[in-house]
Amino acid sequence: MNKILLLILLVIICLNCQAQSREDSTTEIMAIIDELFDGYRAGDSSRVKSVFTIDAKSQTIFTSKNNEEKISELKPISDFIEYIGHGFTEVHDERLWDTQIYYDQKLATVWTKYAFYLDDKFVHCGTETFLLRKENELWKIYYLVDTREKTGCDLPSEIENK
User: How far from each other are the two terminal CA atoms of the chain, in whole angstroms?
Assistant: First the structure.
């Protein structure tokens, strides 16, 4: 009887450890995304640069003025970092919701809806997907793709009134 109780206790402890480890990893990954947007809001290119791999790339999916679906060229993330480094007068604020994180040992995907504001003025909304990989035990973003829409945005009130 004692052996069965001990076995059950060990199984419960192992399951608890796995759940805690999973929660810790999700927290680590989300901290990278938070640091990206905190740095962006602050206009701090060093903070933003710190969350990307050296060879990170980005793309945007958008609707052209001719109402055609387009995808931008693959761009080095250094273009985005340089843009931030030149400074800007308005706060660039990306507000996220409905964020989902999937990961394995060295690969993670973050999918989230967002609304972009300059100061408090709404500019566009869309979806962002981040691919992250583990480098020297740290999560880093190596690919970012987003969509951009100016209309049809169903923003939650906590995003609009932030």
Answer: 57
pTM listed for this prediction: 0.83
Domain coverage including residue 102: 2-160
What's the CA gap between 130 and 107, in Å, rounded? 11
Q: What are the tokens at 13?
A: 């402890």
Mean pLDDT within 29-40: 98
Distance CA 34, CA 45 (A): 14
57-106: per-residue pLDDT in tens? Answer: 999 999 888 989 999 999 999 999 999 999 899 999 999 999 999 999 99
Q: Tokens representing 9?
A: 């206790």
Q: Report the candidate in 93, 86, 90, 79 with the shortest Cα–Cα distance to residue 41.
A: 93
Which CATH number goes with the domain that contains 102?
3.10.450.50
User: How many structural domains are present in the chain?
Assistant: 1
| Coarse DSSP helix, strand, coil percentages of the chain, rounded to the nearest 5 percent | 35, 40, 20
DSSP H helical ranges for the chain: 2-42, 45-49, 77-85, 157-160
The pLDDT confidence band at residue 161, using thresholds 50, 70 and 90, is confident
